[in-house]
Amino acid sequence: MANDGAEAALPKPSNWNLPNAITVIRILLAPVFFIMLLVDDGQDGWLRWAAAVLFILAIATDGIDGHIARSRNLVTDLGKLLDPIADKILTGAALVGLSILAELPWWVTIVILVREVGITVWRFVQLSDRVIPASRGGKLKTLVQSIAISLALLPFPSLLGDWVNWVNGVFMALALILTVVTGIDYLVQAWRLNRTPPPTSPSSPSASPPSPQR
């Protein structure tokens, strides 16, 4: 009973905290990166390098804000929702930019974006019942996507030769496979949740209504 009282006394972390601020900054950096990438127009100039470095730094903050949130007890439902959305906006901007520059087939970008947008919409639909954080498979997918996109953004072929394109292709293919597989996994989980009947409240001799706390 004492432990229950101590847990109840713990204040709920505010949505206005450092991890969520870092996540919002990552979202705001996406259009800046996108403009820098397109302005360079595939010339592999300093803007291309700057755009690539900005993407890498922005996507790297995903691990930083998560570590801060967990270590300082600042995990919030808003953060669980915004964190994967920020990653999707940033990676989506990179994929669309690479396709506009004809450096990535449009069908690859479309497949990935359809999966990402679909899962994001599903998360919003589920908000009335629960907040669905990124799964372990989803986090691995994001990591591989980040590596693949970073390699595609960095103008290494102009310095090291065309063989780098093969390396980029392998990582992008792996990212595409993980994107599709984890998307199917989310759909399977959703189907199982919809089939699971809601838990029934145990019978009680008291006529008082059940507590709203779960």
UniProtKB/TrEMBL annotation:
UniProt keyword annotations, A-Z: Lipid biosynthesis, Lipid metabolism, Membrane, Phospholipid biosynthesis, Phospholipid metabolism, Transferase, Transmembrane, Transmembrane helix
Membrane association type: Multi-pass membrane protein
EC number in record: 2.7.8.5
One example GO MF annotation: CDP-diacylglycerol-glycerol-3-phosphate 3-phosphatidyltransferase activity
Main localization of the protein described in the UniProt heading: membrane
PROSITE patterns with a match to the protein in the record: CDP_ALCOHOL_P_TRANSF (PS00379)
InterPro entries: CDP-alcohol_PTase-I, CDP-OH_P_trans, CDP-OH_PTrfase_TM_dom, CDP_ALCOHOL_P_TRANSF_CS, Phosphatidylglycerol_P_synth
Superkingdom, taxonomy of origin: Bacteria
Protein localization: Membrane
Transmembrane segments: 20-39, 46-69, 89-114, 142-160, 166-188
Family: Belongs to the CDP-alcohol phosphatidyltransferase class-I family.
Name assigned to this protein: CDP-diacylglycerol--glycerol-3-phosphate 3-phosphatidyltransferase
Species this chain originates from: Herbiconiux aconitum
Source organism phylogeny: Bacteria, Bacillati, Actinomycetota, Actinomycetes, Micrococcales
Gene this chain is encoded by: pgsA
